[in-house]
Amino acid sequence: MTGKTIVVMSCAHSDPSVPNTRFSWLGDFLYDLKPDYVVDLGDGADMRSLNTYDTRYPQALVSQSYQADIDHYNDAMERMRWKFRHHKRKRPAYFGFEGNHEHRIKKAIAHDPRLEGQKYGISFGHLQTDHWFDEYHEYVNSAPALVTYDGVLYGHYVASGNYGTAMSTKHHGYSLVEKLACSATVGHTHKFNYFYKGDARPKPLHGLVVGCFKGAAEGWAGQANNEWRTGLAVKREVSEGNYDLEWVSLKRLEQMYGT
After folding, report:
1. 150 in helix, strand or coil?
2. What are the phi and psi torsion angles at 92 (to 5°)?
3. Lowest mean pLDDT among 41-45, 167-171, 184-188
4. Are 249 and 224 within 8 A, CB to CB?
5. Which residue, 176, 158, 152, 179, is CA-closest to 240?
6. Buried b (16+ CB within 10 A) or exposed e, 56-87
7. What is the pTM of this model?
8. What is the pLDDT of residues 35-88, one digit of tens each?
């Protein structure tokens, strides 16, 4: 039996200061590839308007808008899916995960419940996750959900230690396999890392960190921008945690669909 084809992305950080053009390229790519499903590991919405880091810098707050953040995210999601609907073709399933940037909405409401409101306030419902995704996995016990599809464990990140902080090591893919004893795929760090473990078991294990789908460098990140890998992962012949991995860079998407 032929395995499935899956596209995995993370940390797109849709932000009004950067055009959503890359999501149109992604929509064209998905239409041509016709994967069985797409996994979005979270941080698709940057929600810069709710960050707590810029409060000391009024000049950074001037350009921030909650409404613009929400509208830009929903526009990105529409661009990914539009072509299937326009041509009335069968679409892939979409599985989504809440990342720490989407979680900013819940944290803001917890800090000041008076802000909450579907019509005039802020609400997690504004992200329309029930509309964009066939399955969407919100945080569980203040941490990203971990869910298995076709033998691969997915989550925005896997925690390290008893305090729930995100795992982030030089050999991240290896650490995922060693900690979880299964194939696992995460995002969060914006970096790419991959580890393949074949042993006496019938199926090998894959530890994958899928980089990011950001559209521009971040001024706050400095040299760390050079450590990030922008693009998405395509997994082919996926079955029982095993797959053939292909990386598709953002630059390659632009070359294919940017004209």
Report:
1. coil
2. -75, 165
3. 167-171
4. no
5. 152
6. eeeeeeeebebeebbebbbebbbbbbebbeee
7. 0.94
8. 999 999 999 999 999 986 555 544 444 347 899 999 999 999 999 999 999 999
CA 115 to chain centre: 26
Any bridge partners for residue 234, and if so which? 7, 246
Could you list the beta-strand ranges (E) of the chain: 4-9, 37-40, 93-97, 135-137, 147-149, 152-155, 159-160, 165-166, 183-186, 192-197, 205-210, 231-239, 242-249
Q: Which amino acid is at 92?
A: P
Residue with tokens 């995922």: 176
Residues 6+ apart with CB under 8 A from 256: 25, 28, 29
- Percentage of residues in the chain with pLDDT exceeding 90? 84
